[in-house]
Amino acid sequence: SVGSEKLSSQVLRGKQLFYDARDTRLARDSYMSCATCHNDAGHDGRTWDLTGMGEGLRNTISLRGHAGAQGRLHWSANFDEVQDFEGQIRALSQGTGLLSDAQFTTGTRAQTLGDPKAGLSADLDALAAYVAAQSRFDPSPYRTLAGALTPDAVLGRAVFADQCVSCHGGSSFSDSESLATHDVGTLKPSSGARLRYALSGFDTPTLRDVWATAPYLHDGSAPSLESAVRAHTNLSLSPVELANVVAFTRQIGSDEASVQAPPAMGTGLSGQYYSNNALSGTAVLTRAEAVDFNWDRAAPGVGIPADNFSVRWTGQVLAPATGTYRFQTVSDDGVRLWVNGARVINNWTAHSPTRDTTTAIALVAGQRYDLTLEYQERTDGATIQLLWQPPGAVSYALIPVANLFAAGLGLTGDYFANNALSGAAALTRVEPVAFRWGTTAPAGGLPADNYSVRWTGQLLAPISGTYRLQTLSDDGIRLWINGTLLIDNWTPHGDTADTTPAITLLADKPYDIRVEYNELTGRATAQLHWLPPGATTYVLVPVQYQYSAGAGRRASGSTNTLHGL
User: Fold this and answer.
1) Distance of CA 527 to the CA centre of its chain
2) Residue 20 CB neighbour total at 10 angstroms
3) pTM score > 0.90 for this model?
4) Is residue 469 within 8 Å of 479, Cβ to Cβ?
5) 229 phi/psi in degrees, rounded to 5
6) How far apart are the C-alpha atoms of 306 and 186, rounded to whole Å?
7) 272-282 burial, b if ≥16 CB within 10 A, otherwise e?
8) Would you say residue 551 has pLDDT above 70?
9) Which residues, in sequence order, are CB contacts of 64 under 8 Å at separation 6+?
C-alpha cells in the first residue's frame, strides 16, 4: 500500500484526467486519452496526420522534461499554453471539453493563440499542472560508466559549439523560448500548414532527450540521429564530424549543463565620418574598422574632404585578461577617448602626431567595455591610431580588430509616400525607432499624413534572459522577431502601447527584427521599447543594440545551424 501520496492534489487530479478515456468531457467514444499518445508522459513513436486540423504530418513529442513551458508548443508552435489542448479535446477526441461552451467561445479563447484559458477550469488547470510536473530529463546511457562524454563526443561537442548553438545552445538546447521557427530544408508538401495558414518553419525541439525519442524531425521521416542531421540542407559536415556530433547529441541527456558559442570575434568599431571637423550633421560614411590610419594628406573615403573632417568610432573593447590596462592614441589632430563612459583622453587641439596615454584602468577578462573615440582633422597630415598596453606587456600595440566590437547605429528604415508600404521607398536611412513626429513630416519629400515605414535589421541582447518588447504607436504597428509576428495592431489609433509575450534572448546573439508602421492622419508616433531582465520599467531600446540590415552583425555559427531535430 502507499503510505503517502507524493504528488500534490492538483497534479494527481491532472494525472487521473491524463489517463482517463471514459470521461465524455475528454473523449466522446471512450476511445483515447492523452496517455494514448503520451503514455507515462513519453511518446508513442508514431507520426499522425493532422491535416484535417489545419496542420500536417506530425511526429509525437515526448512530454518528459519539457515542463509544458519550453516556448510555444508543438512542431508548428501553435499553442502558447497547455490549456490550449481544450480545443484538441473537442476537435480530435470529440469530448465536450473541460471548459463550458460559454467560456470556450468567449472572445478569441477558442483559438489556440487567443485569449488565455488558464484559471477558468480547475480540471483543465490540473491537466496542465500534470504536464508541467514533467520537469526532469533522464540521463543518457551512452556516456561512460563515470558519466563523462566519450572521446568522440568530446570532439563532437566542439563542432556543436561552433555550428549548432545558434538554435540548440544554452541550457535548454533549444531556442524555442525566443519564439523562433526554422526551415532547415525539411519543409515539404506533407508538412501541411500552421493553424490552417502557411507554414514557414518549425519550433526547435530540445536535444536533451534525443537519445530516446526516435524517429526524428517533424514528420518522423528520420529513423536515426544520423539521418536527421543529414536532412539539414544548411549544414555541411565531414563524415567524421557527423559521427562525432551525433555521438555528442546522443550523450546530452540531463548530464550536459549547457553549450555556449565560442567567443564572438570582433570586426572593429563603428566609424561615422563627417565632412566637417565638428562631428555635426549627418554622417557621410559609416564603416566597421580597427583604428589604425595614416591618411597623410589624402581623403579617408569617398565623399569626405582631405582636410576639415571628423570621425566618431563607437563600440566595445573586449579584455582578454584580467588586470591593469593603459590606452594610448596617436593623433594629428584632435582626439578624445571614453572608456565605459569616462573620458580618459582629451586633446581636442590642432597638433602634429602626438601620443596621449590614459592612467591605469582595471578590466576583467571576457568582459566588454563601452568605448568611444572622437577625432578631428584640420589641415595638412592626418593620423589616428588606438593602442593599448595589456597586463604584463612592456610596450603599446594596436588593439586587435578581434577585440573591437562595433556598436549598432540603428535599423534600416525604408520610408514610403503612402500608408501601404507599397512601391519604391522614397527615403532610406539608418536610425533607432524612437520618433514622435507629431503633425510634421518625418523628412523632406514625405507627406505629414498617409506614409509608412519598414525598419529592418537585427537586435542584440546585452545579457541573456527574459525580455518583453513594446511598441508605442499612432497609428498602425507590426513587429516581428526572427520571422515570428509578435505585435499586430494595424489600426488607426492614438498613442497605444502594445507588448509582446515574454521571450528569451541570449547575450550577443543577433535576432532578426522587422517593424512596420503606417501613419494615417493626425499625430504620428513610432517607438520601440523593451523590458530587459531584472528591469521594472520599459525603456527605448538603446541604439547600440540595433543593427541595420546588411550591417553583418552575425554571431558565430549562425549560418551553419543544427535545429529541427
Assistant:
1) 20
2) 16
3) no
4) yes
5) -70, -40
6) 54
7) bbbbebebeee
8) no
9) 41, 42, 134, 136, 137, 138, 209
Task: Please state the rounded mean pLDDT for residues 244-261.
Answer: 92
Which 8-state DSSP code applies to residue 73? B
DSSP assignments along 321-341, one per residue: SSEEEEEEEEEES-EEEEETT
Q: In which band, very low, low, confident or very high, does the pLDDT at 558 lie, cut at 50, 70 and 90?
A: very low
Q: How far apart are CA 410 and CA 84, in angstroms?
A: 38
Residue 508 CB neighbours (<10 A): 19
What phi and psi, each to the nearest 5 degrees, are found at residue 549?
-60, 130
Distance CA 26, CA 29 (A): 9
Q: Given the DSSP bridges, would you call strands 323-332 and 285-289 parallel, antiparallel or unpaired?
A: unpaired
Q: In this structure, what are the phi and psi dihedrals at residue 292, rounded to the nearest 5 degrees?
A: -155, 80
CA distance 546 to 52: 42
CA dist., res. 355 & res. 373, Å (int): 14
Which distant-in-sequence residues (6+ apart) come within 8 Å of 103 by Cβ? 109, 120, 121
Give the model confidence (pLDDT) of 476-489 as tens digits. 999 999 888 999 99
Number of H helices, E strands in the chain: 9, 30
Q: What are the two backbone dihedrals, phi and then psi, of residue 129, each rounded to the nearest 5 degrees?
A: -65, -35
Q: How far apart are CA 455 and CA 518, in angstroms?
A: 12
What are the residues whose beta carbons fall under 8 Å from the beta carbon of 561, sequence distance 6 or more?
163, 164, 166, 167, 168, 182, 184, 232, 234, 235
CA separation for the pair 468, 72 (Å, rounded): 15
In contact, 210 and 249? CB cutoff 8 Å: yes
Residue among 235, 262, 224, 248 nearest 152 (CA)? 248
**Sequence-separated (6 or more) residues with CB below 8 Å from residue 174:** 70, 71, 167, 168, 204, 205, 206, 207, 563
Least confident of 305-314, 514-523, 546-555: 546-555
- 133: Cβ contacts below 8 Å, ≥ 6 apart: 7, 11, 14, 67
Which three three-digit cell numbers place residue 159? 563542432
Q: What is the pLDDT of residue 430?
A: 85
Average pLDDT, the chain: 91
pLDDT in tens, 221-235: 999 999 999 999 877
Q: What phi and psi values does residue 372 have, to the nearest 5 degrees?
A: -130, 130
Contacts of 367 (CB under 8 A, 6+ apart): 318, 319
Element (H, E) at 270: strand 269-274
Q: How far is CA 172 from the centre of its chain?
A: 14
d(CA 3, CA 364): 55
Q: Centre a 10 Å sphere on the Cβ of residue 41 and count the other Cβ atoms it contains.
A: 18
